[in-house]
Design a protein that fits this description.
The protein has nine helices and eight strands. By secondary structure, it is an alpha/beta fold. It has one domain: TIM Barrel (Alpha-Beta Barrel), CATH 3.20.20.10. The chain has an eight-stranded parallel beta sheet with strand order 7-6-5-4-3-2-1-8. The longest helix has 19 residues. The radius of gyration is 17 Å and the shape is globular. It starts with a helix and ends in an 8-residue tail after the last helix. It binds pyridoxal-5'-phosphate. Pyridoxal-5'-phosphate binds next to strand 8 and helix 9.
Length: 231
């Protein structure tokens, strides 16, 4: 069997088993196949194994790759987006996981408004406080959330985070739990529904699902090690 198809089958089984153990409906967890750095052929192989949702983290790479992939897929942007790339990114992506500042959210909202195509996204939170990570601090998000929730062309659907790198997936659990608790807090303080939690990657999607992830972003466990390092 093709490696990508076999990997997908294994990841899907692990997602379903984890959801089941956590008392969650497996369909409440969506798998985003992170295809960054891998060619269109790898995406095509994944679509042949039934995968429809893909994640990319660079606009230029996506502009080259997405047109070479099968049509009708759902593309999610998961990387750090510069404001001057928003206009190029909007036609390619329907969902933005990694909105890491109010200025970026406003730029997406404004440009989505010009094109008349509403877009959905998540606010990235730097839960762990690592200096190398993008995202709102929890306190900044508490302060700025009211303005973000009012945007009408960008619809804020939840929160996203990345846990610090570790060999032990259990190290990520407190980060994921804190993201869920912040979501619960903002949701009740503002009466704005935040159903989506994007958390968990190849190394830590199990604790993420146990803590409430609705979107897991899995790359190397599906497509193999990336051919070059990527931020
Ligand atoms: C690359 C990347 C992933 C996937 O990481 P893997 O460890 O390969 O599963 C997930 N989320 C983000 C934001 C990424 O940049």
């Amino acid at each position: 069997m093709d490696t990508i198809a076999a990997n997908l089958q294994e990841i899907r089984a692990a997602i379903a088993a984890t959801a089941g153990r956590a008392g969650r409906d497996p369909v409440s967890v969506r798998l985003v196949a992170v295809s960054k750095t891998h060619p269109a052929e790898a995406v095509t192989a994944a679509t042949e194994a039934g995968q429809r949702v893909f994640g990319e983290s660079r606009v230029q790479e996506s502009r080259d790759k997405i047109p070479a992939c099968p049509p009708g897929l759902e593309w999610h942007f998961i990387g750090h987006l510069q404001k001057n790339k928003v206009r190029q990114a909007l036609p390619l992506f329907s969902f933005f996981h990694s909105i890491d500042s109010t200025a970026l959210a406003q730029a997406i909202d404004r440009i989505a408004g010009e094109t008349g195509k509403p877009v959905e996204g998540l606010l990235e939170v730097n839960v762990s406080g690592e200096e190398t990570k993008h995202g709102f601090t929890p306190d900044d998000l508490r302060r700025e959330f009211a303005a973000l929730a009012k945007l009408s062309h960008l619809r804020i659907r939840g929160l996203m985070t990345m846990a610090p790198y570790s060999d032990n997936p259990e190290d990520a659990r407190p980060v994921f739990r804190a993201l869920r608790e912040l979501r619960d807090e903002l949701q009740s303080a503002h009466g704005h529904p935040l159903p989506e939690l994007s958390m968990g990657m190849s190394g830590d999607f199990v604790p993420a699902i146990e803590e409430g992830a609705t979107l897991v972003r899995v790359g190397s466990s599906i497509f193999g090690a990336r051919p070059y390092p990527q931020t």
